[in-house]
Amino acid sequence: MNTLNIAYAEISEAELISEIGKKSYWETYPSILTAEQIDFMLNKNYTMEAIKTLMGSGQDFYVLYEDSVAMGFVAVQVKEQTILRIEKLYLLSAAKGKGYGKRLLDFAAQLGKSRDLLKLELNVNRSNPAYHFYLKQGFLVTETVDIPYYDYVLDDYVMQKALQH
Predict the structure, then answer these.
(1) Which residue, 99, 103, 132, 136, is most buried by CB atoms nearer than 10 A?
(2) Contacts of 21 (CB under 8 A, 6+ apart)
(3) Measured between alpha carbons, how far is 122 from 86 in angstroms, rounded to an integer?
(4) For residue 146, what are the CA distances in angstroms to 37, 134, 149, 165?
(5) Which residues lie below 8 Å from residue 24, measured CB to CB, with a gap of 6+?
(6) Does position 165 have pLDDT exceeding 80, yes or no?
(7) CA–CA separation, 157 vs 14, rounded Å?
(8) Rounded CA separation 60/45 (Å)
(9) Which residues have a Cβ under 8 Å from the Cβ of 67 and sit 6 or more positions away?
(10) Looking at residue 10, what DSSP letter applies?
């Protein structure tokens, strides 16, 4: 039986988070985004410096460890005083299918409840298979958005889930 632990990430773990993000991005997005867009997104949002900046601007990162090996992470931030927004949630391919994504979502829900927040929220690319996973976890589409992002358009669903107190 594997030992699972989800721990708050200190700034010293920015490089670890960056590496998981980059690996996961290349495992997830080649069938959805161009290689140029993947490179752009990684260089913009997943460098060690970008992660440190996000950590310093209010995003809390938590790393999921399986037997002391980092397998994924979630980043959350309070939005509008009632919503805990999941800004990032990534797992390495070796962690998929083990229930770890659900564990990270449940962890985020517990964080939200402990802060007396009412909802979890996230964005997911409309072509990302994770969309179906989020539906199974009780998230509902609240908005379909096309977000201009530099030379690209992020075609996402905004999804929310009520936190039961």
Answers:
(1) 103
(2) 42, 45, 46, 51, 73, 88, 90
(3) 5
(4) 15, 19, 9, 33
(5) 72, 90, 91, 92, 93
(6) no
(7) 27
(8) 15
(9) 2, 3
(10) P
DSSP state at residue 34 = -
Strand (E) or helix (H) holding 61: strand 60-66
Q: Tokens 């699972």 label which residue?
A: 4
Residues 18/75, Cβ–Cβ less than 8 Å: no
pLDDT tens-digit map of 36-69: 999 999 999 999 999 999 999 999 999 999 999 9
pLDDT 10s digits, 118-161: 999 999 999 999 999 999 999 999 999 999 999 999 999 999 99
Tokens of 34: 């161009």
pTM above 0.70, yes or no: yes
Radius of gyration of the chain (CA): 15
Q: Quick one: tokens of 56?
A: 């310093």
Kindly state the percentage of the chain with pLDDT values over 90. Answer: 96
